[in-house]
Amino acid sequence: MRTNNKIFASVLLLLCVSSVAFASTDVKTLLDRLDKSLNHKAEYEKVRIERIDHLRSLLNETSDERVRFDTERKLFEEYKSYRYDSASVYAKRCLETAKKIDDQELINESQCYLAFSLVSAGIPLQANKLLSDIDVSNSSREIKQLYYFTLYRLWNEEAIRIPNNELHDEYVQQSHAYLDSLCNITPKDTYDYWDYLGARQMREGKLEDALKSYEKCFTFKSLDTHAKAMVMAEMAWVYVALGNEDKAIEHFVESAIYDNESATREITALYLLAERIVDKGESERAIKYIHLALDDINFYNANQRKLEIGGILPQIEQERYDIIRSQRNTAFMATILALLLILATTGSYILVRKKSRLIAIADENVRKSLEEVELMNKELIEANKIKTEYIGQLFYANAEFITKLDKLYKTIERQITTKQIDKIKETVSHQKLEQDRANMYAAFDATFLGLFPHFIEKYNALFEEKDRKYPDPEGSLTSEMRIFALIRMGITDSERIGKFLDYSVHTVNTYKTRIKNRSIVKNEEFEARIKEIA
Fold this sequence. Notes:
Layout: H1 2-22, H2 25-38, H3 41-61, H4 65-79, H5 84-101, H6 104-120, H7 124-132, H8 141-161, H9 168-185, H10 191-203, H11 207-217, H12 225-242, H13 245-261, H14 269-277, H15 283-300, H16 303-310, H17 312-346, H18 349-419, H19 422-427, H20 430-451, H21 455-460, H22 479-488, H23 494-501, H24 505-518, H25 523-531
């Protein structure tokens, strides 16, 4: 009875653990919201494309350089999170226009845009060189803010890229320094300030304060959809640091929805979300999200981003496999424990023995059935082999018979000639024998092509077009094809082939060598390819 209680307790514990592991209705509801948003992905992207087309039209219609610069700036902003190569193009155009205007402020701004594009593309050295040539000492606060932000992004991404490198800490310090500069010069009545402050507080371990700063960002009407996606992702990372995985997933979902609504194609929250929902029983969704994220990165077309996300899919597949295996093992254990519980509560030893006996009988029946199926498979394979060999042997026997008959006819012909019996000589003429041989070949061709209807097509595929043969009449084989048809039937000995085709061994080998030399496959592989023809 004590054993039964232990089993019962184990089952209850297992069921409780299972209910916790799979009680992900909140996560599922969030993911359903995301899926609905993703279903409208094309519609959101259409809005961005229409904005871009409108700006391009304005650019073509104006000759005013400052209007051109403003339009090129807006096009850069549209493209920087959408398509890297186009963003880079408009960053360069901004720089060209700024130089025409001869406005140092606009030149500095354009160089920051260009550096931003280089950072996104994973070209940090060139970006750093470009930024080091910029002098913002006399620039406006907005340009300084843009300059410091670009440098912050540069060193932050470099630190992320080399987590175990000796330069990691140095890059982190540099990014922190520029973040501090941003906090110092950015007005507090902007969402940018609270965004930068949140990042600094997170760096300092003030996680609850960081959350409040990020929440403050959402009080500003100037916060656009793309910015909302970024702030939501930052809040998600705070929750990761706090160990609150459910809240982290919730914010990654919100970030992914905002990414989708803003038609963002750079690295999105989808791939970060995919990593976290695999162990929530959402492995299929995780695979779907990571593929969508890969599609976005390929469209964005920056190699650095492709490298960042490229290694995640195998990890998710492995995690998915581990979870499925774990679930399978858990389900297996649950089945066993449930069975033990049922058996223990019945208290009937006789029933257990009876069921065990029935199971043993069923296993034995299954084993016998499997043995019978295996035996039948072997017999079928053997029968098929015998059939092929038998057909080959049959044609070989016919060939030998005709050869003997040919010799007999010649002997009779000489005897009749000696006795001068002309009418009998005409009856057993060699011409009739040749006709019989031709009939035998026709029968062989028809039988063989019935077994291997695609032989001529597959045979010709081993040659260039100019060397391919198409027998006339249709449904027959050429003399060369017959040699390899016999090889496909399992008759590989040149002497046996020669007897069937009335060729010498030398002639058969000459044909085979000549055919192999014309083929597009290696000579030593040719016969193997012939034998593969189904």
